[in-house]
Specification:
about 350 residues, alpha/beta, Rossmann fold
Length: about 350
């Protein structure tokens, strides 16, 4: 896939932004990570007066072939479709948080093993009725993977052209922590057993079974490129998020990264285009054990850690007001000069 992603590098602007931040009526550095976020968003938008326009979360849903055997997941595959209906009926946590913080929510059928019959309120972008079981064959063909990446990119482009400049991603798919664990191991080279967690709530003995099964899957294949790894181990929702992240970076949007599954999509995007990280803000630390190791690999840290492990983009929605605060102080807080406050040289 061909994207043009530029690093956010402008020495003059960075210096101007840092001076603006430092001369606010506060000690230097006193707003901590809010100052880092403000600087990053200003650099992304190439201005010292950034704005957050029409914040949007895209939630991609897809099924995984391995989930039909119930060996690696606590819930049956049917729960994916049932939760999608819950999103459409505005009954899920992500609906609550998006409504609370005035974030636009879009729900996308990337590849659920269910016929939604063109129900309203959903974006119908199904590649297939779930992936193949990678215990037997790659999850998807190269063509399907490329199609999913392009669909994700197109949806982000449409969102951007409708006025959005800050975007987050969520997911729903029974079995997708298994796919994310396999992708994590491939891209970070961390042993698969250290990447596998409880998912939706497996106990210790079930986690050991999951580790064994996924270790066997991992050893079965030798992908030679990020795209082939994504096709072998991924899901349609993960591939679409990968494409969405890459397109958002190309369009110089601010990208808010959610939990374990979305970060696995980012690992794939990062392996293709390393500069994509310049555009990413990391919302929260998931309770899934591999997520912290992903952060260590990327040398990043999350805004919050509330013990969440729900997915859906909920971490994005909950963290968004912090990002709003960062932009608000940069744009509206008084400077020492404008407030007539002396002694700034001592701060």
């Amino acid at each position: 896939m061909d994207f043009t992603i530029k690093p956010i590098f402008n020495n003059n602007l960075e210096a101007a932004l840092q001076n603006k931040i430092n001369t606010k009526t506060k000690p230097i550095g006193a707003l901590g990570e809010l100052e880092t976020i403000a600087l990053q968003i200003g650099m992304i938008q190439n201005t010292d007066q950034p704005s957050l326009n029409q914040p949007t979360i895209l939630v991609f849903a897809g099924d995984h072939g391995i989930a039909q055997k119930r060996e690696v997941n606590l819930y049956p595959q049917e729960v994916t479709a049932q939760m999608v209906y819950n999103f459409i009926n505005e009954g899920a946590a992500i609906n609550v948080f998006c409504k609370q913080h005035q974030i636009t929510l879009k729900v996308i059928d990337a590849g659920v093993n269910h016929d939604f019959e063109n129900i309203p309120g959903m974006i119908h972008s199904k590649v297939d009725f779930g992936t193949q079981n990678y215990q037997e064959k790659p999850a998807m063909t190269a063509e399907q993977c490329a199609q999913a990446i392009q669909k994700g990119a197109d949806l982000v482009a449409e969102t951007f052209h409708n006025g959005c400049n800050i975007i987050g991603f969520g997911e729903m798919g029974i079995g997708n922590t298994s796919a994310a664990s396999l992708l994590m191991s491939y891209f970070t080279k961390i042993p698969i057993a250290a990447c596998v967690g409880s998912g939706t709530g497996l106990d210790t003995s079930a986690i050991k079974i999951k580790q064994k099964i996924l270790s066997e899957v991992y050893q079965k294949y030798i992908p030679v490129s990020p795209l082939e790894a994504l096709a072998t181990f991924g899901g349609f929702e993960i591939a679409m998020i990968t494409g969405g992240i890459l397109k958002a970076a190309e369009l110089e949007m601010t990208i808010i990264i959610d939990g374990f599954i979305v970060t696995s999509a980012l690992l794939a995007a990062h392996a293709m285009y390393q500069d994509v990280l310049d555009y990413c803000i990391f919302a929260h630390a998931s309770e899934e054990q591999g997520h912290q190791k992903m952060y260590q690999f990327l040398d990043k840290k999350p805004l919050i850690n509330l013990g969440m492990r729900l997915g859906e983009g909920t971490g994005v929605a909950v963290a968004y007001p912090i990002i709003e605060s960062a932009v608000a102080f940069l744009n509206t807080m008084a400077s020492f000069e404008s407030a007539g406050v002396s002694g700034s040289e001592k701060c």
